[in-house]
Write the structure tokens for this entry.
Amino acid sequence: MSEIVVSSVKSKKELKAFVRFNYELYKDNAYAVPDFLEDTLDTFNPKKNPAFRFCEAEYFLARREGKIVGRVAAIINRHANEKWQRRYVRFGWIDFIDDIEVSRKLLQAVEDWGRERGMNHIVGPMGFTDLDLEGMLTDGYDQLSTMNSIYNYPYYPQHMLKLGLQKEVGWVERKVTIPKDGHEAHIDKYFKIAEMVKKRYGFHLRTFKSKKEIRDGGYIQKVLGVVNRSYAGLYGYSEMDDAQMEVYANQYLQYLDKRYLSVVETAEGEVIGIGISITSLSRAIQKAKAKLFPFGWYHMAKALWFNRHPQVLDMLLVGVVPEYQDKGANALIFADIIPKTIEDGYEWAETHHQLEDNNPSQSQWKYLECTIHKRRAAYGRDF
């Protein structure tokens, strides 16, 4: 068999080929949701992604006889390494055909690049920050992916183990049945707790009349500030600054229905809890073939504004700052979301990925009918 050659991406044309390889590899897969070409190119652009102020990256393509058979990004996040006292190089956006020599050479390229910069450990898949795609799918291959999570074939984690990488951390995702027609579980407890904490602590929900009000009121920084505070102690987390917050806001605010932005405030107006959900865009992105232009926008617009029978709600983020996690603030979020999902006719919601050993986060679903339907992991090794 001919030799596999791994080389760095050197041109815009190669970078587009890097992004599109994922689509080509999964174009016949009913469950994979590809990266948006435009958004991913912006993520890889130092002029548009403020994470490059504390990150550096290199992108590699594996070829056999000139044909692309794999890709991987090598990333060093200096903020995270300094915070956690580590010398880690991350691998992300990894895809490869089912050939162990391809995956071996891709990971070797990341290790060699990291070693040249003083690193001694490889881990992934992870992105520049925690709001990028992370975690290799290890269970749930027959479940539709989401726009903010990784889908991969079952042979990926098998390759990781064969190459000597071990699981370092795991995440789970849940399918939550919208409570109706006998599936109420114990949702009344959310409403009772919500009313109790309103009276006891003065907590309340902030509502918004427009997206302009969200921006002008400084709620982008306040909402994502909750993410910084609630995620600060979680595996490998790197705090967002104002510039990064603006980038993520521009990326997701265009898709947001303001009714599904749940913001919990104290009596003094401090934002202490948030829930951000959007209608699932997975099928729309598949139909758009991961490109907004020239016609992809049509499928997105149809899913966002003209879908009278939405089926799935994606719960992108749910977070409560640590000092209020045991005071019922999350009950206000669920008490806000549940009636809206019933009114709008959703059948089920999909949670964002949560660390499997994060007990406070795992326990918040206990009063709902739900099941863990996906698992994912990050793999690493010293070198």
User: Anything to note?
Assistant: The chain has two domains: 4-170, 176-376. The first helix runs from residue 12 to 26.
